[in-house]
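Recap from last week: sequence in, structure out.
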Amino acid sequence: MADLLHNNASNTTLRRTRKVVAGPVTIGGEEPIVVQSMCATKTTDILATLEQIRMLKEAGAALIRVAVDSRRDVDALREIRKETKAPLVVDLQENYRLVSDVAPLVEKVRYNPGHLHHHEKEKSVKDKVKFIVDTAGSYNCAIRIGVNFGSLDPEKKGRCNNEMEAAVACAIEHCDMLDSMGFYNYVVSLKSSDPFAVIKINQAFAEKRPEVPIHLGVTEAGLPPGGIIKTRIAFEKLLGLGIGETIRVSLTLPIDKKFEEVKAAYEIIEDVKKGTFLSSRYTGINGLNIISCPSCSRVENASFVELAEKIRDAVSFADDHNISIAVMGCRVNGPGETDVADLGLWCGPKKVNLKRGSKLIGAFGYDEVVDALLRELKDILASRT
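Predicted structure tokens:
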């Protein structure tokens, strides 16, 4: 069965993408599925980040992402690069011009089309993409076009009928941009915290651009075991269809347990290869749905993971109610993801912003916010009954 695919997943449909090269790692073609992960340590803590890279690499991560948001992070990355040969990936986030600093130091960069609107608004998105492409190309870096439901291109959201349509349209537009620039060493990711949305948008994209390798992920999947179940729902379906050339399992985990993301990814791949689909009984997400982002170096307070665990335990009495609670560790996806949840928390250095839908309830200390959340949750449940 495995020889039907470019990767190790069993399938009845042949899907063979072009190859994308990120240093010593090849994604797509007939290559095995590439497993990725991300450091949860502060990039400026060089020794801790090197240890995290070692741990993830030892667990089997072929590509390891580090966060770079400032010049201090760039300086730290430069020192990290001297001490490890592990293939590294960097997210550009809002500051696309950082590609000039990081491209010489990494094998792959990711940009989010939705974030290209935040700075230098007088410049066109296409000009910004060209800057990224020209710089990445000059250093033989691969690119990931990373589309995320929590930070969609505002122009696409306004023009399209729904988020799913906007996400696919954005990915197609940026593929066309890179192709027109003669750059083909790229992959695409279309991520949501809803695994069923992940299935639909990736199927839709794969039909339109079957030659482009796809990076699969359920973003903000949350704490295990729930986060692993959500990820399995999407991955088992998509890998079973031959969709997905590289994957990342995004779990809310303490720093010393980040390797569990890699372990979970390989278990899913192996199960799909054997035809063992553990998530087949899930036809929808009913009941309490806790969305929490993967712990990474952008988390502004180390208490974030502990807070997510406290919330999971404190709200367990509402398991049978259709309630979504988003717990976000920083400002990158925090505002967008919490807007669409019934209750949302996004964490700052000292305070946690508590929202009810898109309405801000207030900012609370880490030792106060669980009680405030419970008050709002009980009020919602009371209003529904």
